[in-house]
Amino acid sequence: MGKPVVYGAEYSVYVRIVRLVLEEKGVGYELVPVDIFAADGIPGWYFEHQPFGRIPAFEHDGFRLHETGAIARYVDEAFDGPALQPVEARPRARMNQIAGMLDAYAYKAMVWDVAVERLEKTPPDEAEIANGLRQARTALQALSSLKAEGPWLLGTDLTLADLHAAPIIGYFVKVAEGRKLLAEFADIWDWYARIAQRASFAKTERQGEETSVRQKALW
């Protein structure tokens, strides 16, 4: 099989999720830069890959996908390497529940309402940050309640749930409020410290500082 292609940018939380999955599977890939914040707008050709103009998009031997969850599951199932999804129905459902919960309730609160607001805005909207932290607390409480015994979110094995959560929480802890809140959840704090030490996490860190925090966080 040919080398897969990921369309997107290093600053993207969701592009990073896909790249983490590829790294954990040991799959070589090409990252084709797509700057959705370019002065001239999103490149016209990109809408053939993602009709809504968001990132990431993915292509493998002529097969195109968009939507991060679908891409992550395809990579896990189409390539050799360690399995990143449980076989049994209940833990697989839990994995999907965690990813869906993070998308629906954690991403905006942690990334936009707290981290971007604190790091990007002058002056920041303190009410927005406070609201984001309240939502983030609820999300962390839910994540803690769903976490199984063991080093990873589902227990002994690293899964797509871990790789989905890591970039979102990784952005949240860029600010002091995020670190302080995460420290209240010792199990999630320890989990994050563990996943942040993985080679895949280091390899997918954004290179350089030329992109604004707001750009890094959007997708």
Short key terms for the protein model shown above:
Glutathione S-transferase Yfyf (Class Pi), Chain A, domain 2; disordered C terminus; alpha+beta; 219 residues; four-stranded mixed sheet; 54% helix; Glutaredoxin; 2 domains
Describe the 3D structure.
There is one protein chain. With 219 residues, the chain is α+β, with helices and mostly antiparallel strands. The protein has 2 domains: 5-83, Glutaredoxin (3-Layer(aba) Sandwich); 89-198, Glutathione S-transferase Yfyf (Class Pi), Chain A, domain 2, CATH 1.20.1050.10. It contains 9 helices and 4 strands, in the order βαβββαααααααα. It has helices at 13-25, 68-78, 89-120, 126-146, 160-172, 176-183, 186-195, 199-203, 213-217; strands spanning 5-8, 30-33, 57-60, 63-66. The protein has a 4-stranded mixed β-sheet with strand order 2-1-3-4, with helices on one face. Strand 3 and strand 4 (63-66) form a beta hairpin. It is globular and about 45 Å long.
Q: How are the secondary structure elements laid out?
A:
Blueprint: E1 5-8, H1 13-25, E2 30-33, E3 57-60, E4 63-66, H2 68-78, H3 89-120, H4 126-146, H5 160-172, H6 176-183, H7 186-195, H8 199-203, H9 213-217
Helix pairs in contact: 1-2, 1-5, 3-4, 3-5, 4-6
Q: What is the helix content? A: 40-55%
Largest sheet: 4 strands, mixed
Radius of gyration: 17 Å
CATH architecture of the largest domain: Up-down Bundle
> What is the CATH third-level topology name of the largest domain?
Glutathione S-transferase Yfyf (Class Pi), Chain A, domain 2
Q: What's the end-to-end separation, in Å?
A: 29 Å
Give the amount of beta strand, in percent: 5-15%
Strand order of the largest sheet: 2-1-3-4
Sketch the topology as an H/E string, one letter per element. Answer: EHEEEHHHHHHHH
Number of strand segments: 4
Structural class: alpha+beta
